[in-house]
Amino acid sequence: MTRPISCRFIPTARKKVLSCSLVIALLTGYLVALNTVMKKRWGLSTLCVTVASILFLPIVTFAGPRSHLLNEDAALSLLERTLRDDRVYTHRISLECVTYGTEEATDAYFEFVLRENHTAKCGGDPETSPVVDRYRVYRKSGTIEWLNRVQDNWQPYDPGKIR
């Protein structure tokens, strides 16, 4: 006796969605191979699995890595992690000597400002906190943009241009 395949589709659980899609794809391939070996036409079961696979495609697309909107904390965390991992400020300033502030929040993005943090450890005049850079993190896609102050326009995040 065979048990039916059970898949739960949770928007943020991408692995589960992809594993179910893989099972469906393997099952379709198995049935096609079985029909070829037995020299039969496509059977009803193969047709059902193929139709089910097509119906699941929108679910797999919907459950991508950015199927939900980022909140402010998640957007800031993404920005901090990206700047740290790309080592954007390694030769300019320690990230321990930078503070982050939210300058603007819209339905589409969060705009963050990075400022120098003048403390005893970091040095500098404690009465000032000059702007280092400004970034936008888009809620839906997680895309990051950087404000090029020389050209006074927003550009796609490119660590090579920022350093």
The order of strands across the largest sheet is 1-2-3-4-5
- Main sheet characteristics: 5 strands, antiparallel
- What is the CATH homology-level superfamily of the largest domain? type vi secretion system effector-immunity co pseudomonas protegens
The CATH topology of the largest domain is: Nuclear Transport Factor 2, Chain: A
Summarize, please:
This protein is an alpha+beta fold.
Can you walk through the features of this model?
The chain has 163 residues and is of the alpha+beta class. It folds into two domains: 14-62; 72-162, type vi secretion system effector-immunity co pseudomonas protegens (Nuclear Transport Factor 2, Chain: A), CATH 3.10.450.170. Helices cover 38% and strands 20% of the residues. The protein has four helices and five strands. The protein has helices spanning 14-37, 44-62, 72-86, 159-162, and strands spanning 98-105, 109-116, 131-138, 144-148, 153-156. The protein has a five-stranded antiparallel β-sheet. Strand 1 and strand 2 (109-116) form a beta hairpin. Helix 1 runs antiparallel to helix 2 (44-62). The longest helix is centred in the N-terminal third of the chain and has 24 residues, at 14-37. The relative contact order is 0.11.
Characteristic terms for this protein:
5-stranded antiparallel beta sheet; Nuclear Transport Factor 2, Chain: A; elongated; 163 residues; disordered N terminus; single chain; 4 helices; alpha+beta
